[in-house]
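Obj.: predict assembly geometry.
Materials: sequence records (below).
Method: joint structure prediction, all chains together.
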Amino acid sequence: MAHAVTILPDEQIAALARRYDEAVAMRRRHSLMVAAVIGVCIALASWGGEVRPGVFFANAGRLTNYFWSILPTLHWATLGKDLADWYWNLDGWLKLLFDTILIAYLGTLIGGIGGFFLCFLASANLVKNPFIRLTARRFLEFCRTVPEIVFALLFVVAFGLGAMPGVMALAIHTMGALGKLFAEVVENIDMNPVEGATASGASWPQMVRLAVVPQVLSNFASYGLLRFEVNVREAAIMGFVGAGGIGQDLIEAIRKFYYSDVSAILLLIILTVMIIDLLTERLRHRLIGLEVER
Amino acid sequence: MNRARIAISAADRARLAAAHPALMRTDPKSRAITGAIVVLGAALAGYGFWRLDFSLARIGSGLGQLAHFVTLMIPPDPGTQLPLYIHALGETLSIAFLGTLIGAVIALPFGFLAARTVVRNPFIHFLVRRCLDIVRGIDKLIWALIYVTVVGLGPFAGILAIATASIGELGKLFSEAIEALDRKPEEGVLSTGGSKAEAVRFAMLPQVLPVIASQMLYYFESNARQSTIVGIVGAGGLGLHLAEQIRVLEWQKVSFLILMMLVMVAAIDFISSRLRFSIIGKSRMEA
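Observations (raw structure tokens):
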């Protein structure tokens, strides 16, 4: 197949080429400016963050060494015994893991209940009074902006060591996070049942119970399960500040350089998190299926 | 407020119930399932309360203590340590910024390797994905603790921790963004004799860059929250001072530090959501 390439006269090409060069130069200038801003930020941040590449590269060997030494020594010939040595405290760790999951469950449950009651107050379509709505919203915002580990630190001082402050810290953060998500779900409901209930004389609680809750419950459950996944991860580190669960053994193992224990506990945590992710994902898909059927 | 009520007589009600039996009947099976779920959930909660040593006496005395602490927190006051806290704020911002940036730079090649459309070999992208999963499965605070034991106390450990955790999270997001790209520019480059690497550079990178930039900003927001707490295990920033002041019960300083955190997070959210919208808006206009 023959292609005909039209060649423009020089004066036309020159104009087009100049335009092209200008456009390219402008984009270059733009990119350079962005790069310069990022460069300044990097310089400032490295200064503020006490970044010393020399120290890092001197220690890079230690880093790889560390990961190498937390790996267990397993030999094929004595695999059973080596595994038993690696997981010498499996019973104790499994109990702590169970506690961790319970902490996550209770935190999600209490926080979910709190979020459930507050979300209706924070929804613009149900509460016309801006004072109540904004108060509820600000409160939820505060609960989810303060990290749960900070709450845990405070509660450990107030309530004493143990799983209880961990549960309460998770519950408060969960209430803030779920309350916001729940309120968004409530704001997207079909308003016809609400009007129907109000028109037939329902009070505000009755209207919420009969017209809103049936529409949002499966969505709420799905968000609750998602939050449970997050909370299991969070509960695993609550022990760092003395708020119960597997974290207390992990921080001890890392601080005291019990190398093989570190990998053993980390592996247990990762496996637990993965299994729980899989289970809740299944459940959530079934819930979403229910939603679609309706 | 006057509400009109529809008065229904008992006879009317019975007639309506007879006309629409399906609507008035409660379904015993779904009732039983709901009841079982509630009972099971409550039983598990009760068992949990018992196993984790909840007691009303402890809750009561703890709440009393907490209320006392709150009264001591007002007004927030940094005392003479304001310059120190401002410095810690700078450290926190540095940890969040450099952590996100380093994490994203390392995550980018992993994102391409984990994308099904770039690497045809299923074994490689399966392997890369599982590695990213494992990195993501370990919390930032755990990484911080590990890095503190390796590179010593200070914000540098925090930067490494945030960067490592971001590799796992951003790597996954990047690979998903890359898989969702338009394939035609890539075909164009390949059909004019470009290599696979050139296709990545000239066809994929320009498309995916705005998406990546907005995801990075989003992670900068989330990492700013996280970097306030890595200090709790000694990795620099505001968390270090917060944990310390809580331990020595200096409540006015504690409330000041929490206030600093909240203001910083709110400011970063505001700036980065502005930037994000401008980036996304621009990429939409270009497309």
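Conclusions so far: Chain B has two domains: 15-73, 82-286.
To do: check interface contacts against the pulldown list.
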